[in-house]
Amino acid sequence: MSDPTAIIDTMNTPLEDRITILAELEAQIETYPDLVDWVVWHNISVPIATLVSMGIFEMNPVAEPYIHSGFDRLLKHLGKEDLGYKHIEDLFA
After folding, report:
1. Residue 40 binned pLDDT confidence (cut-offs 50, 70, 90)
2. I need a surface site. Which of 38, 41, 71, 84 has the fewest CB within 10 A?
3. What pLDDT, in 10s, does the model give residues 49-88?
4. Count of Cβ atoms closer than 10 Å to residue 25 Cβ
């Protein structure tokens, strides 16, 4: 299992935008049907990001590495580099 605390050195998308993108992915999953299996089977970061974005959960040092790891894994799954994204749509532009 990969280390959730391992953060890629080329992090151009800030934490707040990573949270936004992962939460948007869950909220708009019907728009991205090819990612349903990825969200369901491979990622705890999506629900964490959703709860943080809704104000239900507060970001903390334990949760933050999961956001970074999940976002980095999403980029890898999509074959993208971290170019500093703001919203989920930016990953498909």
Report:
1. confident
2. 41
3. 999 999 999 999 999 999 999 999 999 999 999 999 999 9
4. 24
Is the CA virtual torsion 51, 53, 54, 56 positive or negative?
Answer: positive
Domain layout of the chain by residue ranges: 15-92
**How far apart are the C-alpha atoms of 87 and 6, rounded to whole Å?**
23
pTM across the whole model = 0.84
Alpha-carbon gap, residue 87 to 52, rounded angstroms: 16
Beta-carbon contacts of 72 under 8 Å, excluding residues fewer than 6 positions away, are 7, 8, 82
Q: Side chain identity at 91, as an amino acid letter? A: L
